[in-house]
Amino acid sequence: MSFSRPLIVGGAVGTLLLAGCSADPSTDSTDDAPSDASLSVGAAFYPVQFVAEQIGGDDVAVTPLIAGGVEPHDAELSPATVREMQNMDTVLYLSDFSAAVDDAIDTTGARALDAHHIVDEHGEDVAAHEAATHDGEEHAADDGHDHGVADPHFWLDPTLLAEYAEDVVAEFSELDPDHAEAYEERGAALVASLSALDEDFTEGLAVCERREIFVSHEAYGYLGLRYDLEQEGMSGLDPEAEPSPARLREIRDLIEDSGATTIFTESKVSAAVAESLASDAGVTTAVLDPVETATNGDDYIDIMTRNLEALRTGLDCS
User: Fold this and answer.
1) In this predicted model, what pLDDT tens digit does every residue of 28-48 receive, in sequence order?
2) What CA–CA distance (Å, rounded) separates 244 from 144?
3) What's the pTM value of the predicted model, to 2 decimals?
4) Strands in the chain per DSSP E
5) Which one of 143, 226, 264, 296 has the fewest beta carbons within 10 angstroms of its own beta carbon?
6) CA-based torsion, 27, 31, 35, 38: positive or negative
7) pLDDT attached to residue 235
């Protein structure tokens, strides 16, 4: 494994009072965290939490900063969580993804490992792929698309989550050199699992009747780039944005032209508009999870495996 060094941030320690819906970390998945762990690590959202837990094992106590099941874009942090961040060895996060986490890191001066360099390195490729697949389409000015805004969902490409896993191994090893070999071994096992998942997606989506995926919001740029899929979103990157009537008419026409049978919705966002459009267009709905959070004992591999099966069914893959 080769390790690059992403941005590590820190600043002046201060006080941040953010009322919010995130749970006290002591009541979340850290109940089973080992008391003799060498490192205390905060995780800003689920995919980086998964990486930290897989690499850290019993040597790292991982604290989720946002409660499971809470959509991270607009989540807030409790004052207790912010205070605890000051005592963490490092925080894993993606800048510009959750404003509350960004503010807490800036204010507390917590050491943090930012995944944004992956978005910086690959975001232009995603944008180019999106532009190529939508070449010739005309969008209304009020279509709800976030033109020019980078898609943050890099973890929907398992090879890019593996890239961040290498960063985490390097970070943990620097902070805790006594367990560096263990972090390396666990990191290698995680990368192997992610590589196997990538192979499953590549093979499973190789031969399909259609390549277009119709989604409630455009969170699947990295997935589309990696596996040659064309996403058409009812709205742009904001999962709470309401699509315009013009965009809904456009999506219906595209569904009819493509022969699509499915509109993909999300488990944590209301599917009412998508279900209404599906009924109107005579197609079904299925869940395609952006894997921003996890509940009910699921992990990243579980959710992504369900995503693959949903795509194979919706795209009629052989």
Assistant:
1) 444 444 468 999 999 999 999
2) 7
3) 0.86
4) 8-9, 39-43, 60-64, 90-93, 112-114, 212-217, 230-235, 262-265, 284-287
5) 296
6) negative
7) 83
